[in-house]
From TrEMBL, chains A, B:
<dbReference type="InterPro" id="IPR052543">
    <property type="entry name" value="HTH_Metal-responsive_Reg"/>
</dbReference>
<dbReference type="InterPro" id="IPR036388">
    <property type="entry name" value="WH-like_DNA-bd_sf"/>
</dbReference>
<feature type="region of interest" description="Disordered">
    <location>
        <begin position="1"/>
        <end position="54"/>
    </location>
</feature>
<dbReference type="GO" id="GO:0097063">
    <property type="term" value="F:cadmium ion sensor activity"/>
</dbReference>
<dbReference type="GO" id="GO:0032791">
    <property type="term" value="F:lead ion binding"/>
</dbReference>
<dbReference type="GO" id="GO:0046686">
    <property type="term" value="P:response to cadmium ion"/>
</dbReference>
<dbReference type="GO" id="GO:0010288">
    <property type="term" value="P:response to lead ion"/>
</dbReference>
<dbReference type="GO" id="GO:0003677">
    <property type="term" value="F:DNA binding"/>
</dbReference>
<dbReference type="InterPro" id="IPR011991">
    <property type="entry name" value="ArsR-like_HTH"/>
</dbReference>
<dbReference type="InterPro" id="IPR036390">
    <property type="entry name" value="WH_DNA-bd_sf"/>
</dbReference>
<dbReference type="InterPro" id="IPR001845">
    <property type="entry name" value="HTH_ArsR_DNA-bd_dom"/>
</dbReference>
<protein>
    <submittedName>
        <fullName>Transcriptional regulator</fullName>
    </submittedName>
</protein>
<feature type="compositionally biased region" description="Low complexity">
    <location>
        <begin position="17"/>
        <end position="29"/>
    </location>
</feature>
<dbReference type="Pfam" id="PF12840">
    <property type="entry name" value="HTH_20"/>
</dbReference>
<feature type="domain" description="HTH arsR-type">
    <location>
        <begin position="50"/>
        <end position="145"/>
    </location>
</feature>
<dbReference type="GO" id="GO:0003700">
    <property type="term" value="F:DNA-binding transcription factor activity"/>
</dbReference>
Length: 285, 285
DNA sequence: CCGTCGCTTCGGCCGGCGCCGAAAGGACGC
DNA sequence: GCGTCCTTTCGGCGCCGGCCGAAGCGACGG
């Protein structure tokens, strides 16, 4: 399926560009004259034209997201699904050729992977790790919420604030509310960190029918906090968060709205959540 | 002291991606034959110059780190201390005037704060949140470790890999080892998330003499995982991580090496760590 | 087999931005 | 007061990179 990997499974950037072997990360040469100061001094020794104290790696990653169009692509892909090149182009409002170039860069940079099917090129985030990276970044930039300028936007933002997916788990008021309810009912504890309690572990296997083996064996953390973007409070992510989200979707207690990230709690879902976790339907309406 | 803030206390402005409509990708359904871009003026409508689906906010943040020099500055500041403009300039190997411009951008972007003293301009990371952001980013980019090209570099990298600070807590083999020891001795549990145990909480207040009130009242999480950059395993961060680091430094069980992030365990420290947590000195030598 | 459609390649344009050096502005110390 | 030192401002240079449109390629589907 997925056919094109960048050299590394993770970010670091695979020199695997389609065209040529160009690459050559950031200005390696540094012709600027000089050079001075061969390390005579202490640790923070100045000079050394070929500095590169590791900043170039961070910068290379940041550069991938430093463009409005690429950032928009990544945010769109945070819904966890695959999009075609054309869809992304229309979504971001750029020409198809422009989209192609951006997609290539994102793939080469290891943020995306692709799967070609016929004349379509599907891309999606390379891994849950990448999704986590994006979550973390967006969590660090939100505070002041800008008011929507049109009714459409207002409606859309309200829907997103109410409930949405964060790649593979639930977020928004819905996600935070579920997390809060789990904490109140002793399934989760946030007092000394962020972890499921033993009761919480039992709840996942017994009530949600999730195989204990799966919970144990995953390489990903069972539970971790993901700072909610609209609520400014943590919600549950990690394997447990993903399984809960999947469970609710499978039972149609939560439905996606359109193709974006927004979700809605169904009638049956309200009943189920009140029943399972004692969540007041009004809190997530 | 700190005199210059960017407009926002935090980073960027709030995004918002109206995920309302657009198209549904997903190989399965593929309803896309018909009707690309319905909904007049809808989300994915091209030509609409005002696209901006929130990507611009993410991009603005990323742009701050998308330059080698700025990224180098930020990484340097991750040692948690304040640096002068000139120190940063020499460290990164750029002219003082260039450094000034970068520092201005970082301050305006909310990543740094400054304190002017006489003819010096001291800057440091704006908050632990920013430090966390940087940690998260660096954690997501390391995998392939580039070999050092010179003996100096090799020595420096080895020192960093052995032990360093990660803004306000310990990282490197030392940090991971402490975290591991705490887990083995039942002070910390990572089975169902990442949190201190009750024994761990008691250990902090009793053995380390940290006021219980301080642990309770902090806005920051008591314990959180920070993915270690060289070890590829989590180490302890959050209030507990910071206090442990401070405690070890105050007792001179751990010393800074030079002005960078590297630290070293002292003789007395080896004894103390073996005594407190059963850490084998060889493991952190 | 041919038209359509999605994607890609290529050339060209343009703006942004990172860099520097020279010169100026303050602080400090003598 | 007068050098010295740290920092800033300004002008100028050059390149990178994002954008588009036109043309080409390959997959479908009649």
């Amino acid at each position: 399926m997925i056919s094109r990997f960048s050299g590394s499974t993770s970010l670091g950037g695979g020199p695997d560009s389609p065209g040529a072997a160009s690459i050559s990360p950031s200005g390696a040469s540094t012709p600027l004259g000089a050079d001075p100061t061969p390390l005579g001094g202490g640790p923070a020794s100045p000079g050394d034209g070929s500095a590169d104290r590791g900043g170039s790696h961070l910068a290379r990653l940041a550069r991938l997201l430093a463009d409005d169009t690429r950032a928009t692509f990544c945010l769109a892909l945070l819904n966890g699904q695959a999009w075609t090149a054309g869809e992304l182009a229309r979504y971001a409002g750029v020409a198809p050729s422009t989209a192609t170039e951006h997609i290539n860069r994102l793939i080469d940079g290891g943020l995306l992977v692709e799967a070609r099917q016929g004349r379509h090129r599907y891309v999606q985030l390379a891994s849950p790790d990448v999704a986590q990276l994006l979550e973390e970044l967006t969590a660090h930039l939100d505070p002041p919420r800008p008011p929507a300028r049109s009714l459409r936007q207002a409606t859309a933002s309200a829907a997103l604030a109410r409930g949405r997916t964060c790649y593979d788990h639930l977020a928004g008021r819905l996600g935070v509310e579920i997390t809060g309810a789990m904490t109140r009912t002793g399934l989760l504890q946030q007092r000394t960190g962020f972890a499921l309690t033993d009761a919480g572990l039992a709840w996942l296997t017994e009530t949600l029918d999730i195989p204990a083996a799966e919970l144990r064996e995953s390489r990903r953390p069972l539970a971790r906090a993901c700072l909610d973007w609209t609520e400014r409070r943590p919600h549950l992510a990690g394997v447990a968060g993903a399984r809960i989200c999947r469970y609710l979707m499978e039972h149609r207690w939560v439905d996606r709205i359109g193709s974006g990230r927004a979700v809605r709690v169904t009638r049956a879902g309200e009943v189920a959540l009140a029943d399972l976790l004692g969540i007041d339907p009004a809190a997530i309406a």
